[in-house]
Design a protein that fits this description.
Blueprint (H helix, E strand, L loop, with lengths): L4 E7 L2 E5 L7 E4 L2 E4 L11 H18 L5 H12 L3 E2 L3 E3 L2 E7 L7 E6 L4 H13 L14 E4 L10 E8 L5 E8 L5 E7 L5 E9 L5 E2 L5 E6 L22 E6 L8 E4 L8 E6 L5 E7 L7 E6 L10 H4 L6 E4 L6 E7 L2 E6 L7 E6 L2 E9 L6 E8 L3 E8 L2 E8 L5 E5 L5 E6 L6 E8 L2 E9 L8 E5 L10 E9 L5 E9 L10 E4 L14 H10 L2 E5 L9 H5 L7 H16 L8 E6 L1 H12 L6 E5 L18 H4 L5 H10 L8 H4 L9 E7 L8 H10 L18 H16 L9 H9 L10 E6 L10 H4 L3
Parallel strand pairs: 36-37, 36-38, 38-39, 39-40, 40-41
Antiparallel strand pairs: 1-2, 3-4, 5-7, 6-7, 7-8, 8-9, 10-11, 11-12, 12-13, 14-15, 15-16, 16-17, 18-19, 19-20, 20-21, 22-23, 23-24, 24-25, 26-27, 27-28, 28-29, 30-31, 31-32, 32-33, 34-35, 35-37
Helix pairs in contact: 2-13, 7-8, 12-14
């Protein structure tokens, strides 16, 4: 069985840890034997695993310390990060709420401002806006801002973050979820808004939950998992046990969690997940039921006004609530836009892959009408009911946002709102509000919050707040969108950003990012790290909108899912080939990057075309496609991947699973110089979504000289500073040499490196596990600029 130690061979002056191989672990998948010699790496609490990880971390740090550009880049990144940032404000009762960061604060701080808009002031504002339609007066944010909640005071190192947030209808209470070290597990607390004091309420075992208040402010709905058995510690953030039996509860303020009402559970379908949302009129509770991460859901409703004794009547009988089934099949997605009593308007993809708006009366649930039909080309992304009977709708047109004002009743167009090429990341208003706040960002726009007054005849997009980054000049850069022909002839959109007036002679480093899954659209957004890469290394950074995402609706998504997952890899490889053939870069200077499902993308692509890339960054990737569904929330991903428990789907997965397809390129192409590119695998100790075992096992198999970097990231990963520092070191070598780096955790290390006496694999594979971090959300600012 062997023991942990260092290999006698070395890469340069480095030696690489060897992971024990347990050859006795073999699984039978529908008659096919598949070895899993690194199964022991799945136990994060095992001392053997901790020792292995620590040796990899030590090795990686020893490499990074030798990078003489680290301090220079750290200073530059810190300087660019040090700028004020704001989120889009939202209104509850007589107050506005928003987050603000002065620049380098670890976590954003929640502020509130009292709205001074009483009846007389409303009249004055209406008169002013009639004569001065360019928003002569700001609606409601004239008061002095006050800190309501500062997460930076909740931990010394800034690793406690807000994960959920909801203000009661009368703005008396704040319900908020706290996450430690980036874990998906949340503890819900309550605070009185007026005097900013905390209540005694503390709710545990919560994951994937919203907080939805009843309009009487007596309590809220939330979702949680059952209390674990004695001795189990399921909310530590480092466990891997599967999450099942989600439940919907109602919590009365001032009571113990054990007294909460169980509103809904479904033991016969333990993998279903539930979310309860109170409608804007406070009358209905809507129950959303999901079976995975795909754009489909069931939808039930409960008329709370018809409960004889209200929710209090369920304290003794403890639920379930009397829900009525409106949608009881997982065949489409239904999202509520607005309701007038029992008449509901929904955004749906039912018989409309690019989405449409429909209306139904709960009293006549079989009669549905279209309010806004599906567009032939553009995807209807969202609809927000505002200003009485109007709505602001957003479309995605060739991965660029379009904003319109439409009539809520008829769907007819009222106004087009002008907006630059970029992303609308937030529309904040409720049905009674005529003043709307709209958040916008782009590759070269750090952030703008627009204010749009719908009271006037011709609404305008006026700048309310603009985020400015010191030292950044957008005129130095250029954005280009191209459409790349994939293997099957489909045109794949790709954004390319770089400095102006650069010759396309193939001499420049290039970063190519992709995701391609779960109906997620990659739209333009600002990244300090990518700007540093472009400005200081002369690099291009590119976003490939490959299939599997939602950029062109559900058909685009399905074209890269399940049996068609290989399409995602083909699209990404085609994007890389385009960048090379068009003179943007060359293979030895091309770095690919992706996180989570995008980490799977990177892992699969370096297996299939290792010679095409010079460097690969796989953040928190799903690498073991045969066992992912057995850990935490992995079962929710079978909607996109399939499941190895089914024979047909096993045949899809085994063909591209990164862990099971590490090969020696020099054996596939005899006589060639092909090897894996320099590869960094990144994960985090508290990633309880894509658990670290994926990256650890992948690393173990490669068995090449690898320096594994495990770091947390979110779905829209930005190139972090330490990657920039290491890339600077690597790319400077790549520019002058024709060398590349390869490997990938233990699997890669074994196949490519330690199993051979003189391996042709000379490119390193490195890994780093970031401590007190998770899948990406809630990372403190200093971890984004860590040295």
């Amino acid at each position: 069985m062997g023991s942990l130690g260092l290999s006698e061979g070395s890469f340069g002056q480095f030696q690489y840890p060897i992971a024990r191989r347990d050859e006795s672990v073999v699984d039978d998948y529908h008659g096919i034997k598949v070895a899993d010699p690194y199964r022991w790496l799945e136990d994060a609490d095992a001392e053997e695993v901790k020792k292995f990880v620590q040796k990899q971390v030590t090795l990686t740090e020893s490499v990074l310390e030798k990078c003489d550009t680290r301090s220079k880049l750290h200073k530059q990144i810190t300087k660019l990060f040090d700028h004020p940032r704001y989120t889009v404000p939202f209104k509850r009762g007589n107050k506005y709420f928003y987050f603000h960061n002065t620049g380098l604060q670890a976590q954003n701080v929640l502020y509130m401002q009292v709205c001074q808009e009483q009846h007389l002031i409303k009249i004055v504002i209406s008169v002013c806006n009639f004569f001065y339609p360019s928003n002569w007066i700001q609606d409601g944010l004239d008061g002095e801002p006050e800190v309501l909640l500062d997460p930076n005071t909740l931990s010394e190192d800034g690793t406690v973050s807000l994960k959920a947030l909801s203000v009661s209808e009368d703005a008396k209470y704040l319900g908020y979820g706290l996450s430690s070290s980036g874990s998906d597990w949340v503890t819900i607390k309550v605070r009185r808004v007026e005097d900013k004091t905390g209540e005694l309420d503390s709710l545990s075992w919560i994951k994937f939950s919203e907080i939805s208040w009843t309009h009487d402010s007596k309590g809220f709905f939330y979702s949680r998992y059952p209390v674990p058995k004695d001795g189990e510690n399921l909310d530590s953030g480092i466990e891997t046990s599967v999450n099942v039996n989600h439940e919907l509860y109602y919590h009365f303020l001032g009571t113990n969690q054990s007294e909460d009402i169980l509103c809904w559970s479904d033991p016969e379908n333990p993998k279903h997940m539930f979310s309860g949302r109170v409608t804007d009129d406070g009358k209905y509770l809507l129950l959303y039921i999901d079976e995975g991460c795909g754009p489909v859901n069931k939808l039930y409703h409960c008329d709370m006004s018809a409960l004889p004794k209200g929710l209090e009547g369920f304290r003794e009988r403890n639920g379930p609530l009397p829900f009525v089934k409106l949608i009881d099949q997982f065949d489409a997605q239904y999202l509520t836009v607005a309701n007038d009593d029992s008449s509901f308007t929904f955004l749906t993809n039912k018989d409309a892959p690019k989405y449409k708006l429909v209306r139904v009366d709960l009293k006549e649930p079989s009669k549905w009408i279209d309010v806004i039909p599906e567009d032939e080309k553009d995807v209807l992304e969202s609809a927000c009911a505002v200003n009485g009977n109007q709505m602001i709708v957003s479309y995605l047109s060739d991965v660029k946002y379009v904003l319109q004002v439409r009539d809520l009743k008829t769907g007819s167009m009222l106004h087009k709102l002008p907006i630059d090429i970029g992303t609308v990341y937030g529309i904040s208003a409720r049905r009674e509000d005529s003043m709307v706040f709209i958040g916008f960002t782009s590759f070269l726009t750090p952030g703008i919050i627009y204010q749009c007054n719908l009271r006037v005849e011709f609404p305008e997009m006026n700048i309310f707040r603009e985020i400015n980054v010191p030292g950044f000049d957008r005129s130095d850069f250029k954005i280009n969108q191209v459409f790349v022909q994939s293997k099957d002839g489909t045109k794949i959109p790709m954004f390319i950003v770089g400095k102006k007036d650069i010759n396309l002679d193939g001499s420049h480093p290039c970063l190519l990012y992709g995701y391609g899954g779960f109906n997620v659209s990659l739209t333009p957004s600002f990244s300090v790290s990518r700007i540093v890469l472009a400005r200081h290394l002369g690099a291009f950074f590119c976003i490939a909108n490959i299939r599997g995402g939602g950029e062109y609706g559900e058909e685009w998504h399905k074209a890269g899912a399940l049996s068609k997952k290989q399409t995602c890899f083909n699209d990404f490889i085609s994007a890389a080939e385009y960048l090379i053939s068009s003179g943007y870069t060359q293979p030895k200077k091309l770095c690919i990057e992706g996180g989570s499902n995008g980490g799977l993308l990177v892992g699969a692509c370096i297996n299939q075309r290792p010679e095409l890339f010079g460097c690969a960054l796989a953040h928190v990737g799903v690498m073991d496609m045969l066992r992912f569904h057995k850990f935490t929330i992995g079962h929710a991903w079978t909607c996109d991947f399939g499941c190895s428990d089914k024979e047909e789907e096993f045949q899809w997965l085994i063909k591209y699973s990164p862990l099971h397809n590490v090969r020696r390129p020099w054996e596939t192409h005899p006589g060639g110089q092909s090897q894996y590119p320099s590869t960094m695998l990144l994960t985090a100790d508290h990633d309880d979504r894509v658990v670290p075992l994926h990256s650890l096992k992948m690393l173990a198999v490669s068995s090449l000289p690898i320096i594994v970097i495990l770091v947390s990231t979110c779905l829209n990963i930005h190139l972090h500073s330490y990657l920039l520092k290491f890339l600077t070191h690597i790319l400077s070598s790549l520019i002058s040499q024709d060398s590349r780096f390869a490997c990938s955790f233990q699997t890669m290390q074994y196949v490519l490196c330690t199993s051979l006496q003189n391996s042709p694999q000379t490119n390193p594979i490195i890994g780093r596990i970031e401590c007190k971090a998770g899948h990406g959300c809630g990372r403190p600012t200093y971890k984004l600029v860590i040295n």
